[in-house]
Design brief:
This protein has helices at 16-43, 47-72, 77-94. By secondary structure, it is mainly alpha-helical. Helix 1 (16-43) packs antiparallel against helix 2 (47-72) and helix 1 packs across helix 3. The longest helix is centred in the N-terminal third of the chain and has 28 residues, at 16-43.
Length: 95
Amino acid sequence: MQDEYIKEESIIEKTEIEKEIEIIKTIIRTREELKAASKNFEYAEEDLVDYYAYQIKANQAKLNYLIKLAKTKGIVVDMINEIKFRFDSEVQEAV
């Protein structure tokens, strides 16, 4: 007899708006990571140059994908700015 995986609790599906908000938050985080990697690249020495170059390329590819995904879902810049404002406020309250 083969053991089967039994789900102990149901997984709650996110609503469409929650998915869009998550995409926007990920865009904002990825953009900040890209900025940080670019800044670190400017001051990198020896082997770290390759490391930060890889980070820049990876973050840029991720950002391009997320922006394309956001466009297909009809997310506009105004929504991104609104979510960024809320996201920044949440981070400040947590600190």
